[in-house]
Amino acid sequence: MVVDYAALKKGGFMRQKQKDHFSLRLKVVGGELEVAQLQAVAEVAEKYGRGSVHLTARQGVEIPFIKLADVEKVKDALAAKGVFTGVCGPRVRTVTACQGNAICPSGCIDTYALARQISERYFGRELPHKFKFGVTGCRNNCLKAEENDLGVKGVYRLSWSGEVCTLCGVCVKACREKAVSVRENTLTIDEKRCNNCGRCAKTCPTGAWKGEPGYLLSFGGTFGNRIAQGRQILPPLKDTITFFRVADAALDFFDKHGKPEDRFLAAIERAGWGVFEETILAEVRHAC
Amino acid sequence: MPAERMADFRPDAAADVTDVVCPVTFVKALAALDELEDGRILEIRLNDGEAARNVPLSLKDEGHQVLRLTDNGDGTCALLVRKVSACPVE
Ligand code: SF4
Ligand code: SF4
Ligand code: SF4
């Protein structure tokens, strides 16, 4: 039998060291799976694998010890229950996310919704090299946004109204950056210290603080052979429409400037950070 | 100016959660509120730092009315909170 390894790999079949065995990578978005999907995974692992799964570092699930001869049967059995194979190789990978504001009290943005949108738009898109998106709901950064080629971090864009503030002192303590203080019967906000974490607005009992979701992006993170933290080059974006304009531009930039085997960071460096920043800023200006 | 700004709230009961750490601070505060009638005010003594940063938000999310947080100047804070019972579910 002639084996098309490239096609196999595109479909998430990772060659194992054991001859003719593959670890099958599944598509998971934002680390969320329905119970019915988990049951299908369990059945396949039992019937075609060795009765176990591996949870990957990026919220994925792999079923090891799938035999080459069973590949099509396994794909069909999973697809029937809404489980699809993941991708490997030079394309947009699993989109990761923390639970965000749908579940977590600290969340500033709806990470699940955004992860699903990102996945629908880009998952599997071919690029010079692998490309990772990660979405974290707030400054606590449980999802480690800056490890990703394009990381998203939820923040709040804030306003404060003295009309309803009771000077209760709660936000003064809630602020880790010591940006808020009560002085002479009013609240003082040091905007230079403020990092838009949103804790003041979350915790304010009177609604004096208003917080609107903001999307803080980081570009060029990589945590493989080379380790580098993604860079923030923009103020928080105000909506997901602007986000997708920027993300489209970033992927097009990667296509244009990346050579095969360049990670996104290498492509940015090849063209120069200045050129990249100009490209991205042009999109943001256009959106305003 | 909101009336609460100058108000002198008088607590009906007190609780001290400076001897425990997260998440027991919140649990202990909730237990103390549980003992109170709706509308009564509890004064909670908590450690400055993590507890002072987080307990007010947790109580707010539970539906209680946070009134004031004062620094006692000795590494602890005083949190005044009014008990608000959950609306009865039909
Ligand atoms: S990053 Fe923020 S929103 Fe996400 S799980 Fe952590 S604390 Fe919650
Ligand atoms: S957003 Fe965060 S850093 Fe800024 S004032 Fe509010 S609590 Fe402080
Ligand atoms: S938490 Fe709200 S009401 Fe209290 S001091 Fe801050 S802004 Fe004013």
Question: What is the fold's blueprint, element by element?
Answer:
The complex is a heterodimer of chains A (288) and B (90).
Chain A (H helix, E strand, L loop, with lengths): L4 H6 L2 E3 L5 E5 L9 H13 L6 E2 L5 E7 L3 H9 L16 E2 L13 H12 L10 E4 L13 E11 L9 H5 L5 E4 L2 E4 L9 H5 L5 E11 L2 E2 L3 E2 L11 H18 L6 H8 L1 H15 L1
Parallel strand pairs in A: 5-6, 6-7
Antiparallel strand pairs in A: 1-2, 2-4, 3-4, 7-10, 8-9, 11-12
Helix pairs in contact in A: 7-9, 8-9
Chain B lengths: L12 E4 L7 H11 L6 E7 L2 H12 L3 E7 L4 E7 L8
Parallel strand pairs in B: 1-2
Antiparallel strand pairs in B: 2-4, 3-4
Bound molecules: iron/sulfur cluster (3 copies).
One iron/sulfur cluster binds next to helix 6 of chain A.
Keywords:
heterodimer; A: 288 residues; alpha+beta; Alpha-Beta Plaits; Sulfite Reductase Hemoprotein, domain 1; 2 domains; 4-stranded antiparallel β-sheet; 20% strand; globular; B: 90 residues; Translation Initiation Factor IF3; 4-stranded mixed β-sheet; 2 helices; binds iron/sulfur cluster
Question: Mind explaining what this structure looks like?
Answer:
The complex is a heterodimer of chains A (288) and B (90). Chain A is an alpha+beta fold. Chain A has two domains: 5-79, Alpha-Beta Plaits (2-Layer Sandwich), CATH 3.30.70.3340; 96-155 and 214-287, Sulfite Reductase Hemoprotein, domain 1 (2-Layer Sandwich), CATH 3.30.413. In chain A, 32% of the residues lie in helices and 20% in strands. In chain A, the strands form four sheets. In chain A, strands 1-2-4-3 form a four-stranded antiparallel beta sheet. The longest helix of chain A is centred in the C-terminal third of the chain and has 18 residues, at 240-257. Chain B has one domain (20-82): TusA-like domain (Translation Initiation Factor IF3, 2-Layer Sandwich), CATH 3.30.110. Chain B has two helices and four strands, in the order βαβαββ. In chain B, strands 1-2-4-3 form a four-stranded mixed beta sheet, with helices on one face. In chain B, helix 1 (24-34) packs across helix 2 (50-61). Chain A binds chain B through residues 105, 163-170, 172-174, 176, 199, 202-203, 205-206, and chain B through 2, 4-5, 48, 52-53, 56-58, 60-61, 65-71, 77. The complex binds iron/sulfur cluster (3 copies). Residues 165-171, 187, 204, 206, 208-209 of chain A line the site of one iron/sulfur cluster. Residues 158, 174-175, 177, 179-180, 194-200 of chain A line the site of one iron/sulfur cluster (SF4).
